Amino acid sequence: MDLSHLTVTTRSNAVVFSAVAVCAWTILQRFQAFHRLKLTKDSKGRRKLPKAIAVFGTATDVGKSIVCTALCRILSDEGYSVAPFKAQNMSNNSFVTLDGHEIGRAQAAQAEAARCEPTRDMNPVLLKPSSDTGCQVILSGKPLGNLEAREYFRNIEQRHSKVRLAVKTALSRLQEKYDIVVLEGAGSCAELNLKDRDVVNFSAAELADADVILVADIEKCGVFAQVIGTIDLLTPAERRRVKGIIINKFRGDPSMFDDGVKIIEQRTKIPILGVVPYFRGIHIDSEDALPREAKLDPAPPNPSAHSNTIYIAVLYLPHISNFTDFLPLSKEPNTEVHYLQHRIVKDLRPYHAVILPGSKNVRFDLDWLRKEGWAEALSSYYKTGKRGQVVGICGGLQMMGREIADPMGYDGAPGTMEGLGFVGIHTEMKGPGSKTLRRASGTCLIPNSLCKTAVSGYEIHLGSSSLIPPTAPAFLLNCSGQEDDIDWGDGAVSPDNRAWGSYLHGLFDSPNFRRKFLSSLRGNLPSEIGYKYAEEKENDVDMDLQGEKNEEFEGEESVESTAEGRE
Question: Rounded to two decimals, what is the model's pTM?
Answer without folding.
Answer: 0.76
